[in-house]
Prior knowledge:
Bound molecules: D-gluconic acid
CATH architecture of the largest domain: Alpha-Beta Barrel
CATH superfamily of the largest domain: Glycosidases
Structural class: alpha/beta
Radius of gyration: 22 Å
Helix content: 40-55%
Number of domains: 2
Number of helices: 16
Largest sheet: 8 strands, parallel, barrel
Amino acid sequence: MFQTLMPRTLVLKYLSYINNIFITLGVELMNSFKLPENFMFGTATASLQIEGGDKNNSWYRWAEQGHIKDNTHCIVANDHWNRVEEDIELMKKLNCRVYRMSLEWSRIEPEKGKFNSEAIEHYKWEIQKLIEAGINPLVTLHHFSNPLWMEDEGAWLNAEAVSYFERYTEYVVSKLGEHVCDWVTINEPNVYLLIGYVFGEWPPGKTSIKDYLKGAKNMIMAHIKSYNKIHEVRTKMGFRDTMVGVAFHLRVYDPKHGTALEKRLCKNTDHLTQEIFIQGMTEGKLVFPVGSGYPLGKGKYFDFFGINYYTRDIISFTLNPSQLFAKTEVKEDAPVNDLGWELYPEGLYRICKKYYDRFKQPIYITENGTCDSKDAFRTRYIYDHIQQVKRLIDEGVDVQRYYHWTLMDNFEWIEGLSARFGVVEVNFDTLERKIRKSGQFYAELCKHKAVTDEMIEKYL
Length: 460
Ligand code: GCO
């Protein structure tokens, strides 16, 4: 009714006028906003979660052993290995300019020391297709899965893993370095090690803090060696534009009641789950209880600071020593996603600001997204988080890229195929892909580098 009496532009003007009044009153409504033209949007995936067809990795075995909660499997996943072109078409429809993907180590080095040229040729072809489509790849070397030969030698508890990873890096970069300038060495070392070596829920199913710390040390060393190797190989090729980093999973930890003890517990948790990796992987420093000093030399081992941000934890005291006296829970009455994770956009701001103030290096948001099978709140989630990105940029924080997790619904590790993070919906019986409403919103956001009044009206 309102709309039929007034021209559209007038309606929008009127709404933004009302909106401003609300903002002045401290009530926030939705605003249009614009990001810089050179800001880059894309999506992120991981090979094991989408490719299918590989039986030679730790996650295939884990699924075979019956650990996946919904009894699904990664053996087909999205069949992306055979549908690369179809999936690049989807990225084009989403107007993405960048894409974060990972390589399956077990395909590239199926046996210890033996490389498979067909696999690397396949990835080279995929990367060339992306570049032809105007999409720049950011390639991750390790995203949670290991070749079985490596897993059977003790995975990341074996100190040899460091040189295995360096050798794999050298092979990959010598083959793909001509086309790929942006690299992530290791994805979320903290998540991989916590769930696989402390909680025992992911392969290799260990439950030992000692193993966690041992794995942390090896992953830190592997990152540094891999960082140096990528630069060395590409520099020899004559390139000067190499960008290498880690995709750190970073959470906000807030005290439940704000007591001094809880604040201390937040700091401890942050130190043990985040800080040890940050200091190790950015400057080569081993800190207590991982180690001490700079075993590979003090340096700067990152060219961008990669942040995977999803949620925050509320911390309180518990007498349970196995939880290190810190109980983590979701904030009471907070909005949550399908997996029960708090939706907390402000956390993205807090994390980016904190590490930018500390390192003054470019930030890539290497993952951010949510599990929403009904696509009921994903559009709002994207809007809220990108609004925080805008706020950061306005305050001079150098956030350059945003990779939405994820392109399409896929194999969500122990949760299986039923946890839905995609802006593209996948029917796992037919493997048919369909862009969700939130995906249409994201496509417009990527195209305009802005949320316009029209988009708010249409999608929000
Ligand atoms: C991670 C991984 C992704 C997940 C995503 C949603 O952050 O755990 O990088 O592989 O699928 O985060 O849980």
